[in-house]
Amino acid sequence: MKRFTLTRKDQQGCLRVTTITADRFFKYMVSGRKATAHEVYPDAELQKAGDGSLSLRRHNGITLLTVPCLPLPEEREAVKQAAMALPTTLAAFDGADGQRVIILVCYAESEQQSAEESVADLKANAAYEQAVVVYSKAVGRNIPHQSPSVRMHFTRVADTAARYNAEAIPLDISRFGLETIRIIDLLTTRYRFRYNTIMGYTEYRLKDNGNGLWSPVDDRVVKSLTMAARLSGLDAWDKDIRRYVESSLIQPYNPVREFLKEARRKWDGCTDHIGRLAGTVPCEVPQWPQWFRKWLLYMVAQWLGKTRRYGNSVAPLLISGQGYNKSTFCRQLLPDCLQWGYNDNLLISEKKQTLQAMSQFLLINLDEFNQISQQMQEGFLKNVIQLARVKIKRPYGRHVEDFPRLASFIATTNESSVLADPTGNRRFIAIELTGPIDVSQPIDYKGLYGQAVTLIERGEQYWFDDQEVREIMAHNRQFQMVSPAEQYFHECFVLPAGEDDGEWLTAAAIYDHLRRMSGSSLRANGLRRFGRILTNMEGLRRRRVACGTQYLVGRRP
Predict the structure, then answer these.
(1) Is 124 helix (H, G, I), strand (E, B) or coil?
(2) Which end of the chain is less crowded, N or C, counting CB atoms within 10 A of the terminal residue's CB?
(3) pTM for this structure?
């Protein structure tokens, strides 16, 4: 017995879902009694999930056609009569606006009933395309094309002139791809498929193994699925399987969004999981808990696609000797279900690989940060760490594509003087550990990330403002690499209190003096970087003149 689904919103805004047999539905329609304004799904028997969404339980094999522009009752009656003359018509009745006729057409089912909505939509599409051709000719009216699916619906009305034929004969859709439907029926009976929107490929697992691991559908899997279909008596080829698994019929799946959606419901609204996690990192930096909180919120906001003009452009930099659990802490920031998104062996000098990793991973650990060259810190790394999106050409791709950035950065090092770029040290939060990080306590990941999502939704600021950036830069000066040129500067010059105590010199003049004092230990081509050092030197006064920039310095006796 075919059952329609009726949905409506109650006074509290909650979705109400009921089902009713087709016979009973049309009995009420022709009774003339006022009908409650339900949305009616004739092809879909839907059920309400725990999160309030609707899922397909089964489909009826009914497609919906709409004949518009019929303001006169006699016009609508003529269309109803013409439609009911066809044995495949289940019903014909007025639409809610009183100027159209809705026709319900039965269509043939394949041999196996499937609750997979993608397969049901494929059948609905085939039936709809054929029905439009047949019924346009039968009723003498143009039937505009819609987007056919099992969830096509109409608004319930009372129509005493409605026509109903419980003995309707299904429309034969065999010549519209029934073999393809049988192939897909077989696949979806044995397997579940989903399109991983982050990794950019379709995954599958056995249908009767609800807790099994999802695996990519690669060439070897496609060939195995083809053989399974052919052994079942179907005329299937690799291209047939590939067309299905690479099509939009496969439902998209974002593993990060699904995890965060579940986590959001798990936070109790009180426990500060983020603060607890920050507290496991022993240090003498009072701002660390707040800085870590903002960094973690920005990481989650980036996963949710809430990036602003820039991406998460700040990275914690954990500094200590060996055995302080720095790498373990970084790895444990992600739960087991998201560990695929952790990367600690990225070669940052491989620019294409780095950009691709930023679009596919969630957290990148720049382990042994001290091994990243000064040139790389000042150039490529400084640029990519602030990107909100990346442009790359995927393997075997034909053109460059634009992807949202997902990955945030964190870093570890055994050396304290590691920041090479004076203007780029605001990109890092350098934290020198006073003891090993406590990684012995299990992390409540649902509570941790549930808190982060809720705080973001409440509007808590997850980016660093100008004042905080200045605080970070001031804090990071103690971890700045001091170049030989800067060391020589402090050996030869002092910062005078006023102009009477010093003289105005250009960077070239100061650098030339240092080279004469140090001999050949300073490179001749280091003047440009030396100028940047002077520009960022705290307390050094400067002024613009016709020949460039001059700095106020005093010579040591």
Answers:
(1) helix
(2) C
(3) 0.65
